[in-house]
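FORM 7B: Structural annotation worksheet

SECTION A. Query
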Amino acid sequence: EAVRQPFWDMLSTHAVRRTKKEYLQDLPDKNYIEKWVDMTPTQKKQYEQFAAEAELTIGEYEIGAVGVLAEYTRLKQFANAVQTVEILEPATLDHPMKYKLTPTEDSPKLPQIMEILDDLGIVNDEPVGGQYEKAVIFSESAEMVKMVTGYLKKSGIPAEMTLGGMPQTRRSALQAEFQAEGGVKVMVVSTLAAGFS
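SECTION B. Predicted structure
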């Protein structure tokens, strides 16, 4: 925390930082559970291929910090799941290839999600400790949010998603549905949407 404080001090002139605990004192403490998963063989091969291309791109072209961050963001997408790669513009001598990534269900994270939901009684809609549980899943990638939500629905789990570009009225309706007894069991949220009230 001491290392982070200068950053928060600098940022405080530009943004308001507050935690939910600061204005909702009755909230229980967060419970963090770390689960490390290995990439599938196909995913690992794809990740390594694009990591090598990112290194070439970073070394071969004059890329600013935003470009480097974009490459690392793309690599994080490959770490989530095998991606379908749609080439938008081929590489030229002056510019790297531009492409769109869409996650597939070939992801080691999906079985882990299902295991956690099963432990919570959500998979079979069973109470745990006398009460029915609900879960919120976060991802930085809107495409990953869409894929996970679709996977959960296909698996028979009542799930909805919240994305940053959604109108506030839609987000509020989804929140109410999630909070209602017997409503949606799992909400999959992009971190961008989580930043909105």
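SECTION C. Observations
DSSP finds eight helices and five strands in the chain. The chain has a mean pLDDT of 82.

SECTION D. Sign-off
Analyst initials: ____
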